[in-house]
From TrEMBL:
The entry's keywords: Cell membrane, Membrane, Transmembrane, Transmembrane helix
SMART domains xrefs: VWA (SM00327)
PANTHER family in the cross-refs: LEUCINE ZIPPER PROTEIN 4 (PTHR22550:SF5), SPORE GERMINATION PROTEIN (PTHR22550)
Species of origin: Ginsengibacter hankyongi
Domain of life: Bacteria
Positions of transmembrane segments: 12-29, 308-329
InterPro entries hit by this protein: Aerotolerance_reg_N, UPF0353/GerABKA_families, vWA_BatA_type, VWF_A, vWFA_dom_sf
Limits of the VWFA domain: 96-288
Entry protein name: VWA domain-containing protein
Top-level taxonomy: Bacteria, Pseudomonadati, Bacteroidota, Chitinophagia, Chitinophagales
Length: 334
């Protein structure tokens, strides 16, 4: 219980704890004084007095023990035990970011570990964890687009929504224009000075109701910066394909419209990246994280709660108890 009381406790005046060196000195003085005491009445022998020892003799040092405890409490009180509370106040400008992720069937290709989609989800989670002061949202797209999670600072909810992303949630295809347009729509009413879309895809636009060029112009109108990421190795990648015989692995050609992705990034003030494996994909998100830094100042306030009062009261009570015992039960008569 005493340990729990001192848990997370510091001392405002720790030098006073040196006074504990007095305790062994007082104990030594008490022992020496006891040995030097002489009898008030001279007798020839103490034989036969050994059986006359009473409970007062047994507990005669109790008042002295109370005095030592009182002195210990006074020393602790002088050292000022206190609990420190740190309070942080954030001020500044965060960045509003939409993670626009392709969930088409080709994202199950296994040229990444374990596949492109799971690798993209993993780096997205790391990216979210590294940006605690920003509002982040998620848009997924394949043949159509959908807002998986609107802009939020609740990153626990955000991580949960990223974990739920999987293939087959939407009609298959690669609607890059629709994905970008939905992302822009989520950011157009944002009051943040910096608005960013990170668009990740592994294919060529082949569907959707909005053309990528139109979505790009809308992004430029609302001053939204778009970083684009092309995912996939060079050449062919093993991809699970549904057949009448079940799911089989086939080598599918990697086709990424890099010209389109570069154009979208250049026209909106962003940058195009190509990821060919898990490490390069993680490095890309790290680079974007460095390019889009939040301007946040954190002020820390230190508050202290004093905990010396119980020791003052305990010392007073022990001294009072010692005084009462010394002049009542353990009173010595000349």
């Amino acid at each position: 219980m005493l340990f729990d009381y001192f848990n997370n406790t510091t001392f405002g005046q720790p030098l006073f704890l040196v006074l504990f060196a007095i305790i062994p000195v007082l104990i030594y003085w008490k022992i020496v004084k006891g040995k030097r005491q002489t009898a008030a009445i001279g007798i020839s022998t103490t034989k036969g007095l050994s059986k006359t020892r009473s409970w007062k003799n047994t507990f005669q040092n109790v008042p002295f023990i109370f005095r030592l405890l009182a002195i210990s409490c006074i020393i602790i009180a002088l050292a000022r035990p206190q609990v420190k509370f740190d309070e942080e106040q954030s001020e500044g400008e965060g960045v509003d970011i939409i993670l626009c992720i392709d969930v088409s069937g080709s994202m199950t290709a296994q040229d990444f570990t374990p596949n492109r989609m799971e690798a993209a989800k993993k780096v997205a989670e790391n990216f979210v964890n590294d940006r605690p002061n920003d509002r982040i949202g998620i848009v997924i797209f394949s043949g159509e687009s959908f807002t998986q999670c609107p802009l939020t600072t609740d990153h626990h909810v955000l991580i949960s929504q990223i974990e739920q992303i999987r293939n087959g949630l939407l009609e298959d295809g690669t609607a890059i224009g629709s994905g970008l347009a939905t992302s822009v729509d989520r950011l157009r009413s944002s009051k943040a000075k910096s608005k960013v879309v990170i668009l990740l895809t592994d294919g060529v636009n082949n569907g959707g109701l909005i053309d990528p060029a139109t979505a790009k112009e809308i992004a430029k109108t609302f001053k939204i910066k778009v970083y684009t990421i092309g995912v996939g190795t060079d050449g062919y990648a093993p991809t699970p394909v549904s057949t009448p015989m079940g799911i089989v692995m086939q080598n599918e050609k990697v086709a990424i419209d890099e010209k389109l992705l570069k154009n979208i990034a250049d026209q909106t003030g962003g940058k195009y990246f190509r990821a060919t494996d898990n490490k390069s994909l993680q490095d890309i998100y790290t680079s974007i994280d460095h390019l889009e830094k939040s301007k946040v100042e954190i002020t820390t306030f230190h508050r202290f709660t004093e905990k010396f009062y119980p020791f003052v009261f305990a010392a007073m009570a022990l001294l009072l108890l010692e005084f009462i015992l010394r002049f009542t039960i353990f009173r010595k008569f000349p």
